[in-house]
Structure formats: C-alpha cells, structure tokens
Amino acid sequence: MKNSGILIVVSGFSGAGKGTLMKRLLEKYDTYSLSISMTTREPRQGETHGKEYFFVTKEQFEQKISESGFVEHAVYCKHYYGTPRDYVENELKNGKDVILEIEIQGALKIKEKFPDALLLFVMPPSIDELRRRLIGRGTETKEVIEQRLQRAIEEAEDIEAYEYIVINDDLEICVDEMHQMILASHNAPTRNLKFIENMRNDLIDLSKGE
Ligand code: 5GP
Questions:
Q1: CB-ligand 1 contact for 83 (6 Å cutoff)
Q2: Is the shortest distance between the CB of 33 and ligand 1 below 6 Å?
Q3: In sequence order, what are the beta bridge partners of 123?
Q4: What is the CATH class of 7-207?
C-alpha cells in the first residue's frame, strides 16, 4: 500500500537552526515539498522573493486572508506570516509529504485543522549555542533579538503539543533522525485508518470463506 502524503510542521526557537536543517533535509531526500510562506517582514540580506518567502505588503496579506487564501496565518514579532493554501493542498493530493516551517500559533491551528499532521519541534543543544547562533547571525538588531527571545520563552510553554523534539547538534545526524521520525510516523495506525478498516473487513470475509 502506498502511503499518501502527510503534513509535517517544523517549529523551533528563532536561532535553533531550522532553516539550515530544512535546506539539508530537502537536498538529501527528494520526497519532501517545502511550503513557501508569505510574510510582511522585510527581506534579510540574501533573501529573495519566492525563495525564502513571498514578501508582500500588509494590504496584500490582508486581501489574501479575506479570500481564505491561507491554511493558517499568525502574527509573529509584529509581522504577518501565513501558509498559502493552494500549494499545500495540491502537493498533499499528489502524495507528497509537505513541510511547513512555522511558529507555534500556526502549528496549533494546523493540528486542529489537520489532526494527522506531524508536529516536530527543533531545539538547540544548549542555551549557549542558541545565544551564539542568534547573535552570530548578525542580521538582527539587539531589539529584534530581545523580542525573539521573549517569544522563545512563550513558545517553550507549549512544546508538549508536539509529537517529537529534534535536537539540532550535529546537522547530518539531525537530518537523518528527522527523516526517520517522518518515515515511522507514516505507519501510525491513526494515519492508516482506511487500510486498517479494509484489512478488518477482508479478515471477516476470509473467515467466512469468501
Ligand atoms: P523569520 O522572520 O525568522 O523568518 O520567521 C519568524 C518565525 O515565523 C519563525 O518561527 C518561522 O518558523 C515562522 N513562520 C514562517 N512562516 C510562517 C507561516 O507561514 N506561518 C506561521 N504561523 N509562522 C511562520
């Protein structure tokens, strides 16, 4: 039986290394589709429209909300972020595993709408490492870093809503672990209800000699 695609939500504190992790996962395994979000925040140096994000104005974002164009959207550190609906629905229909790299409010909304979604939370190996990555990135002002640390404190409250934590220490090991978690999740009974139901019916037929 071929599994159909599942929705995979990846969250984690700013600076936990989600971006690098996602990039490597997609390079290494070709079974995943990464959803590109829309945001009203300014592009960082080196980011391009349509690659990291679709960068839009507040008006354009609100227009898309009014058209029900997002599967979820949230406000994070004073900016809108949202997952465009069409891409996700089409890729899932085509049997792809679709990854959403989103923050916790969005993750909880996805879990409500798609109970089969797999929620993974990326954590740095230590707080010193988080500090080093967040400051070392050099792309954010002190004020933005402080806002993001505040958000990390809030987000840490809800980590138990996720199915697995992923500790981002060694990149290659971490990517492989994540891939294994996803593969295993495909075989959870709750994600194979139809297959199980058919097997039960076939068993009954078999016992009747049909
Ligand atoms: P950044 O500004 O660092 O790229 O992203 C800030 C936060 O917004 C990160 O936690 C990122 O995962 C999250 N984010 C990115 N896209 C989306 C989205 O479409 N929806 C939600 N809810 N969060 C998102």
A1: yes
A2: no
A3: 167
A4: alpha beta
Could you please report the per-residue DSSP string of 56-87? Answer: --HHHHHHHHHTT-EEEEEEETTEEEEEEHHH
- Domain boundary assignment for the chain: 7-207
Measuring from atom 11 of ligand 1, which residue has the nearest CA? 102
101 lines ligand 1 (CB under 6 A): yes
Q: How far apart are CA 102 and CA 30, in angstroms?
A: 21
Question: Lowest mean pLDDT: which of 15-29, 52-66, 132-146?
Answer: 132-146
Task: Work out the number of other CB atoms within 10 angstroms of the CB of residue 149.
Answer: 15
Span 78-103, pLDDT tens digits: 999 999 999 999 999 998 999 999 99
pLDDT for 102-141, tens place per residue? 999 999 999 999 999 999 999 999 988 888 888 877 778 8
Q: Which residue puts its alpha carbon closest to atom 17 of ligand 1?
A: 102
The predicted model gives 50-63 an average pLDDT of: 97
